[in-house]
Design goal:
Among the domains are: 160 residues, Rossmann fold; 69 residues, no CATH class; 78 residues. 58% of the residues lie in helices and 8% in strands. The protein contains 26 helices and 7 strands. The protein has a 5-stranded parallel beta sheet, sandwiched between helices. The chain has a two-stranded antiparallel ribbon with strand order 6-7.
Length: 491
């Protein structure tokens, strides 16, 4: 965000639970809280807001980093900064006893915060478990944040928070659609439509880090030049995605090879896949428990299948695969799926390796299926099928056909992926119309009019004349809404 303090929405219940734990500490009871969630879900900000709820309490804090996994007793060294407790030679039990004796002397409440707990070394994790499972009547609030981890040392700390009377375990879920709508409304200063908020929610999976990138772009871009789809593209290209992708190692640590392959399949699929189909591709049984422990997978009731919680993590997983591995996964998915889903993966395989499928026959099938769907009045399905055919063969005829269906199905925003292919086309009415449509999606109707002006010779039997006429009408409508009719009169 441009502002130093960005909106905080959708975490009221979680914050109230932490404040309730704080009130018990105020009465002399020890409490500890584990915030668990994938990177980008908002653990750090919730920790900050929780600490701000008790501004008068002293705090001792440490944020661990990946390299500290190899540092003996990194948590204790970070919290005490080299003071009285010597731990290099002492046992876990000896240090735990000394810390517990010291805690009994506390009279005023205090906070101990440990960020990125999943990076804790084994000694520190064992020490924390012993202290937290014994600490009862000292005014200490321990706040910890962690990504889901298959490491037993970290898992049992999260489990302790779930069963201990002194513990609170908060599994942070992504923001809801209503939360995203509220967030964007605060950023833009006006009411955001539910449809626009839904597009952001779908693209970001509701993860605050990505929603914040959308809001930041909207807040910093002048009115008349900003659009939801541009903001989404900015968010998905933002450097903060690197933070999310580097956290993959944490979730994958300790994961067996079959479960790792299941994650690769789900990342490639992008849609829920049934247990039966996963096992068919894998050639063996899957381990649902291990899948869930990664924190990366959710069960989708509607489709009775598994899916990744976060598509940004999926893109990170795919980035680790070779072209051959990706091609083979697409072909395996095409073999177990049917209809458009199967054809989608055949097209993806062909884009990676033109020899992987009979591309010409597949293209003809997609065009014919798209024509039948359009004749049946299902413009959305027709658009999806013709979009797949255009990915196989992005020529002027296919892209113009796609542009016409984008108008009928109100899917103009989905033409953005084809911009490089459109710019590579020879000059034609269809090319000019498609470039103008893309300019409209960038909230630049005057740029769209310039694109249309580049094509002055509209004689002959050019296939894009209908799309050109439709686009010219759309552009004029946008210009009138912006109050620039003088430009139109000049033409």
């Amino acid at each position: 965000m441009v502002a130093a303090d960005y909106p905080f929405v959708g975490r009221r219940d979680e914050l109230l639970r932490i404040r309730a734990a704080g009130e018990r500490v105020r009465r002399g009871q020890s409490q500890f809280v584990v915030l668990e969630g994938l990177a980008g879900v908002g653990k750090t900000e919730l920790m900050r807001r929780a600490r701000d709820s008790f501004p008068e309490w002293p705090e001792y804090g440490v944020v661990l980093s990946r390299h500290q996994r190899a540092t003996h007793s990194a948590v204790l060294h970070g919290l005490l900064e080299g003071s009285a407790v010597a731990c290099d030679e002492a046992s876990v039990e000896e240090i735990a006893a000394k810390l517990l004796r010291g805690a009994q002397e506390f009279e005023a409440p205090m906070i101990v915060s440990i960020g990125e707990l999943h990076h804790a070394d084994d000694f520190s994790a064992e020490l924390l478990w012993q202290v937290l499972s014994t600490l009862v009547d000292s005014p200490v609030l321990v706040l910890m944040s962690a990504a889901p981890s298959a490491r037993p040392e970290i898992r049992r700390l999260a489990q302790l928070a779930q069963v201990s009377p002194q513990g609170t375990h908060i599994a942070l879920a992504p923001l809801t659609l209503d939360d995203v709508k509220d967030y964007l409304g605060i950023c833009t200063g006006f009411a955001v439509s539910r449809e626009a908020a839904a597009r952001v929610h779908r693209a970001t999976d509701g993860y605050p880090l990505l929603v914040r990138c959308v809001g930041s772009w909207l807040q910093s871009t002048p009115m008349g030049r900003r659009g939801i789809d541009q903001a989404i593209r900015h968010a998905l290209e933002h450097e903060d995605l690197l933070h999310i992708r580097t956290q993959l190692d944490i979730s994958l640590e300790g994961v067996g090879e079959p479960t790792g392959r299941v994650l690769d399949i789900l990342a490639t699929a992008e849609t829920p896949i049934s247990e039966r189909n996963l096992e068919s591709i894998l050639g063996e049984r899957i381990c649902p428990r291990e899948l869930v422990q990664t924190g990366m997978v959710r069960w989708d009731d509607a489709s009775c299948g598994y899916a990744l919680r976060m598509r940004a993590a999926g893109r990170g997983l795919i980035g680790r695969l070779s072209c051959k591995e990706r091609r083979d996964l697409h072909l395996a998915l095409a073999a177990v799926l049917s209809g458009r889903e199967s054809m989608h993966h055949q097209v993806a395989a062909a884009q990676l390796d033109p020899e992987a499928v009979a591309a010409e026959r597949l293209h003809e099938q997609l065009v014919e299926a798209g024509r039948e769907a359009a004749e049946a009045g299902d413009c959305g399905e027709a658009f999806e099928l013709v979009r797949l055919s255009a990915r196989l063969r992005p020529d002027v005829e296919g892209l113009t056909r796609l542009g016409l269906l984008a108008v009928s199905a109100d899917r103009r925003k989905d033409l953005v992926e084809f911009e490089p292919a459109v710019r590579a086309l020879p000059a034609s009415a269809g090319r000019s119309a498609l470039l103008a449509m893309l300019s409209i999606q960038r909230a630049d109707p005057q740029g769209a009019l310039k694109e249309l002006d580049r094509r002055t010779d509209l004689s002959g039997e050019e296939s894009g004349l209908l799309l050109y006429a439709q686009t010219l009408s759309d552009v004029c409508g946008h210009l009138i809404l912006l109050g620039v009719p003088s430009i139109l009169r000049a033409r």
